[in-house]
């Protein structure tokens, strides 16, 4: 019998950020489409919400409405869950002989990687603490590292030797060495689709590389100084680069053309990120401010002030409704992205905070400081929930796994702690 041209195969739940993924067949091809439920709250009227969704989504027919309501209720329960936030030190890994540059988790947190001045990147098993692979081959400091999350089967390393290497997580073998930059690579990122890796360099350019073919796709030229931050949006059609020239550029990934230059900061950019639905960009700068921009038009929406010293890191929560900033003044702040108001001040660290991140659910914030501690905070109130003590030197990196039950911290004491 002839297959119907369009048909829903199944519905998948996405907890962070809340959403339902529709798997359907169209013209014989399997496709997926997300329904984002970023505004879902524990008190949302689910039946009314699903009725609204049904109006705009032909794949959701009367026969599966009950199922959709059930799924949305499950997402609601997840939001209500009270998790035990007490983290305890699980393992200390003496990872490299020379200082660490960066650490990164795969999506589940089962594995993580460390980059070092010793010119290697090491892959670790989180649960056992054992070293799985040493990725050797760079001729200088391995500075920027990443997994191709959510898949996690590939690792990219960017080095002061001006090259980027792509590796197999399973075997530790190097697939490709990407050459072309004329100075150190200091930042890199995979797109979520895991088809490209982007590298940012002290040569003031960024480059896009095709992971399958192992070749350069585009050079993003236009900055007048080093590029130290870059970030793809979730759709993978745009990328932003932040530079020491005080600007952030928005680029079209397909053509490599610059779409907008975000001008307004009065000092070097330290950090830049898209929110989940690709509508906003947040930028942090050494000028002590954080700015919000419309990602589509490139227009300036707000300047978030309050910090007394440089902003060293900024991030959105998963849904893109809150912004967290970390500063050299030893404090972090949380702002509502819509109202632009400061909703919490995270005070207590005795040194500068170099990194800040939300857990996937968005109710906790983690900060890493030069005071040798990391802290866990309540994102809504700004109360410090826990101080993670154990490192003997500055902590420069911190991350949650996707479930939010494991934390990793990287320190200048050459160790990684798993909490």
Summed over residues and divided by their number, the pLDDT gives a mean of: 94
**Class inferred from helices and paired strands:** mainly beta
Strand order of the largest sheet: 4-35-34-33
CATH topology of the domain at 306-418: Methylamine Dehydrogenase, Chain H
Please identify the top-level CATH class of the domain at 306-418: Mainly Beta
CATH architecture of the domain at 306-418: 7 Propeller
Radius of gyration: 21 Å
Helix content: under 10%
What are the low-pLDDT stretches, counting only 5+ consecutive residues below 50? none
The named CATH superfamily of the domain at 306-418 = YVTN repeat-like/Quinoprotein amine dehydrogenase
Brief account:
The protein is 6% helix and 47% strand. By secondary structure, it is mainly β. Helix 1 (46-56) packs across helix 2 (65-80).
Q: Can you give a write-up of this model?
A:
The chain is mainly beta. The protein has a domain at 306-418: Methylamine Dehydrogenase, Chain H, CATH 2.130.10. It contains two helices and 35 strands. It has a four-stranded antiparallel beta sheet with strand order 4-35-34-33, with no helix packed on it. A four-stranded antiparallel beta sheet has the order 5-6-7-8, with no helix packed on it. It has a four-stranded antiparallel beta sheet with strand order 9-10-11-12, with no helix packed on it. Strand 1 (6-14) and strand 2 (19-26) form a beta hairpin. The longest helix is centred in the N-terminal third of the chain and has 16 residues, at 65-80. The radius of gyration is 21 Å and the shape is globular. The relative contact order is 0.10. The model has no long low-confidence stretch (mean pLDDT 94).
